[in-house]
Write a structure and sequence with these properties.
Distance between the termini: 92 Å
Strand content: 15-25%
Largest sheet: 3 strands, antiparallel
Number of strands: 7
Oligomer: single chain
Helix content: 25-40%
């Protein structure tokens, strides 16, 4: 009489488990699939950042136009970008010199990676560069030497004239290509 309980044979127990080779093959397949998905995910993220930058450029241009409508003049910006002092004119209600009616023309959140916003440098795009701005201060409804994109992936720093009153833009570099993101297209 056999005193040992009956158990499955060793060969059937071994067949139901993964071998090390099978596990490595599964991991390799997952790695290949992740490698294929990463560029698509990165492209979607970059597209979202470009859309955010475009919306912010238009938002800044709209705020400047609203300021002009309210006060009958363009804001007294210093420099050619949306520095902190220029953002303060549009985003604060306690500037009695530049905004005596205490109108909030634009709300801007603190800068976050991939989202843009304000920081110590000014109003920055999702990549961290401060937006550039051009104002038609002589009221001829023309902005001279504005950047433009002659071909996809290239940006010319100056050279085209726009029949606009306000222009806001940023240039995003991706590898060796540059992309113009602006408020006038």
């Amino acid at each position: 009489m056999n005193s040992f309980p009956t158990s499955p044979s060793r060969s059937s127990a071994k067949a139901s488990a993964f071998t090390l080779i099978e596990l490595l093959v599964v991991i390799a397949i997952i790695a290949v699939l992740m490698g294929l998905l990463f560029p698509a995910a990165q492209s979607a993220i970059n597209s979202a950042k470009k859309t955010t930058a475009k919306n912010q450029a238009v938002q800044i241009a709209t705020a400047i136009t609203a300021y002009e409508t309210e006060y009958g003049r363009l804001p007294a910006f210093t420099g050619t970008n949306m520095a902190a002092s220029n953002i303060a004119i549009l985003c604060t209600t306690n500037d009695s010199i530049n905004n005596p009616r205490a109108v909030l023309f634009m709300e801007a959140a603190a800068w976050k990676t991939g989202k843009g916003g304000t920081n110590a440098n000014g109003f920055c795009d999702p990549w961290g560069s401060v937006y550039s701005v051009a104002l038609d201060t002589n009221y001829v409804n023309q902005l001279s030497n504005m950047p433009y994109a002659p071909t996809l992936g290239t940006v010319s720093s100056a050279g085209t004239n726009l029949t606009k009153h306000v222009g806001v833009w940023t240039v995003w570099s991706n590898s060796s290509k540059q992309y113009l993101i602006n408020s006038w297209d």
